[in-house]
Write a structure and sequence with these properties.
About 25% of the residues lie in helices and about 25% in strands. By secondary structure, the protein is an alpha+beta fold. The model has no long low-confidence stretch (mean pLDDT about 80).
């Protein structure tokens, strides 16, 4: 048989139960793992898919840069080829083409282009600088001027680009283009007759004769400078 505890022992047991603090229950924490969970060393773990995507992007950027530089080089080569074989930029010298062109204007010429009447052509005379004049007579034609009228193969041809200048000159009692003193000019094959638009002061075929085809650099297509006077011909 078990011994009953004494009254003093019971009181001591009850006192301990009253004064003893209950042990707190541990809180349960739930951890959620992300795609980039940190390992024990503190560094982020990179997902293998992200690594492969970043590598692909890097390779793509490098390829695009290479393509850009290749296109730039090819474009420069093509531009140089166009300049050498098809077009050129020259400066206007003198006042023979006033008012159409003035001293210092920059014009673009198209090489190996078919020339027609009243086109502006760039050519050289001897070893001099390039000159620009207007094509008046074509190979195989006969031309003459009488009282400011151009006759081609004995048919009158209007020079509409000089109407204002001709009218102003005739008001002052003189022709803008002097009559040819000699016989009508017969132009052989492979040559052109050129005149400046500033007829009273221009130096042209009236002074140094016809222009051979192989001396012609090209046809003037555009005035590029000054920028506020850009125009096409």
């Amino acid at each position: 048989m078990k011994k009953r505890p004494t009254s003093y022992a019971r009181e001591l047991t009850l006192h301990k139960k009253r004064t003893q603090r209950p042990t707190p229950k541990k809180k349960r924490t739930i951890k959620f793992r992300s795609h980039t969970d940190r390992p024990s060393n503190g560094k982020k773990r990179s997902h293998p898919k992200k690594k492969s995507i970043s590598k692909k992007k890097c390779r793509k950027h490098k390829w695009l840069i290479k393509e850009f530089f290749v296109a730039l080089i090819l474009g420069s080569i093509i531009a140089m080829g166009l300049i050498v074989f098809f077009v050129d930029l020259i400066a206007v010298r003198g006042y023979s083409m006033v008012p159409t062109l003035r001293e210092g204007d920059k014009v673009l010429i198209q090489k190996n282009s078919m020339l027609r009447r009243f086109d502006l052509a760039a050519y050289t005379v001897g070893e001099g600088d390039p000159q620009i004049r207007r094509i008046i007579g074509l190979p195989g034609e006969t031309i003459r001027y009488t009282q400011d009228t151009l006759f081609v193969n004995e048919q009158p041809v209007d020079e509409k680009f000089l109407v204002d200048e001709i009218n102003e000159s005739q008001k002052n009692g003189r022709d803008y283009t002097e009559d040819f003193e000699q016989q009508p000019v017969v132009i052989p094959e492979g040559f052109y007759f050129v005149l400046g638009d500033n007829r009273p002061y221009a130096t042209d075929s009236r002074h140094y004769g016809l222009i051979a085809k192989n001396r012609i650099l090209g046809k003037v297509t555009t005035q590029l400078f000054p920028f506020n006077e850009i125009k096409a011909f």
